[in-house]
Structure formats: C-alpha cells, structure tokens
Amino acid sequence: MANIIVAQTAGFCFGVRIAVDMAKQAGEKLGHAYTNGPIIHNKQVVNYLKSIGVEEMQGYSQLKPGDTVIIRSHGVPPKTERMLKELHVNVLDATCPFVKKVHDKVKQLVEEGYFVVIIGEEGHPEVIGTLGHLEEVDGKGVVVENFEDLVKKVPKRNRIGVVAQTTQSEDFFREAVGYLAENTEELKVFNTICDATSVRQEEVKKIAPEVDVMIIIGGKHSGNTQRLYQISKALNPNTYHIETADELQEQWFENKENIGVSAGASTPDWIIQEVVNKIKEIKGVSHE
Ligand code: F3S
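Above: inputs. Below: predicted complex with FE3-S4 cluster.
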C-alpha cells in the first residue's frame, strides 16, 4: 500500500499568500487590476489571475487615473510609490511584512550613522526596493552577492550595519558577517532572512532520504523551488521537479511505495492537491 508524505511546509509562504489573496480579491471585486511584475513565479496562478482581470503592468504609460496597481511582495523603492500616486492610481500594497522590516532596519542604520551592507542579489526586485529606501534617507551602502564583492566593494569604514535580502542563504550571511566583524571596528547586524525558505529546505532534507521517490512541485523559474529540487536530488536520486500533475509519469512510481511531496513557496495548495490525487490514482489508492 503506497504511503504518500506531503511536507507540512509545502506551498505558499505567508507573504505570497497575502499577495495572491489581494490580487484575487482585486480581480473579483474590480474586474481589472495591474501588478508591478509577475505576482509570483507560478504560471498557473498568473494565468488564473489574468483570467479574472489581473495582469502584469507593461509600463507606467499604460496607467490611467483610477486604475489599480498591486505592489507585489518584493516591495518597491519609495520613488515608485510616489510616481504611482502622481498618476492618481489606486495602490494596493502587498509588500511582505518581512521585506518592510528590511526597509525599517536600513533606515535605522542610516539614522544611527552606519554605512549599510546589504547581503543580497544585485538587480533583484527586492534589493532594488531596499536600495531605494536607503537612498531615500541619504544613506550610503553597497550590495554584496559573494565573498569577492565583500572584499572589493565594502570600503574601509569604522561603523558598518548589515541587513540581508529576505531569501538569502544563511551560510553566506554567516560568512559575510564573520568577515566584516574581523575588518570593522563597530558592526551592527540585523539578520533579516525570512525563515519561509529555510524551513522548507529543512523538511525536504528530512523527507527525501526516507522515501523511494520524491516529487518537488513548483514553477520551473522559481528559485526557491529549484533549490528544493537540488537539495532533494542530492539526497535521493529519484527526485523529480514538476509544475503540474500532468507531468507525472507512471514509471517513476513502479515498485515505489513511499512517496514524498514538497513544493516551493509560490505553489498553490490546489496544484499540490492535484498532484497528490494523481499519484493516488497511479498507485491505486482511493481518495478520502
Ligand atoms: Fe515574505 Fe519570506 Fe515569503 S519574505 S514573501 S514570507 S519568502
């Protein structure tokens, strides 16, 4: 009898849930709204939202007074918010509270006179927003992605303050803080990494070695899903990354009784449920 273990942490994180719910409500109530970029890295959700009138904004020139724009969970620089106000559009702010916390900490560090080091990916929408908040308070700072950046980009300063992009790797964060501690007189650190990503990874590390086959569900372009897949594949070679139930292949489950399932932070529950139901069908397990 097949045994299917679905990770408790599989699927939407808190911030994505807020953003998707907000977009859904806007579509249902208003019939039309824009998002400033894809609301999440999940084609199925983006297509569903499009079907109820919520679409990605292609440029500010298409906005008319009275339109509604949803700011996605990554947040935006303050000047973007001002621009939207000047265009007289209704703004629905779905910036994740964990991202807002990074903005607050950056402001605090600048007020206290620190040079700010943001540990994150240059050019990532969240980091662009954070840099905008730094600029807003006339702060000075740099973004570091790797060890080389740390050595090359961080100037010699006596007082350095550190924040992280919410989805940064804990390992690099620790390494960077260690390096800065050795090279700075005074260091103030805010660990702003949100735990939504790490708890998913920890659970996959526990489940993958214990099952015969592991299914990871999520957008092919979703970074956090890809990381879950890589972690699982390293622990269990019978790991498969799929976006929807249609991609499941019967031969993956031949003579396999223990099946694990997890999903990235941008995978909705209904897709996870469809996958579980299809696996049950393949294995001849009746649906409850
Ligand atoms: Fe927010 Fe963390 Fe999700 S920052 S959007 S809860 S990955």
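The two ends are 15 Å apart (CA to CA).
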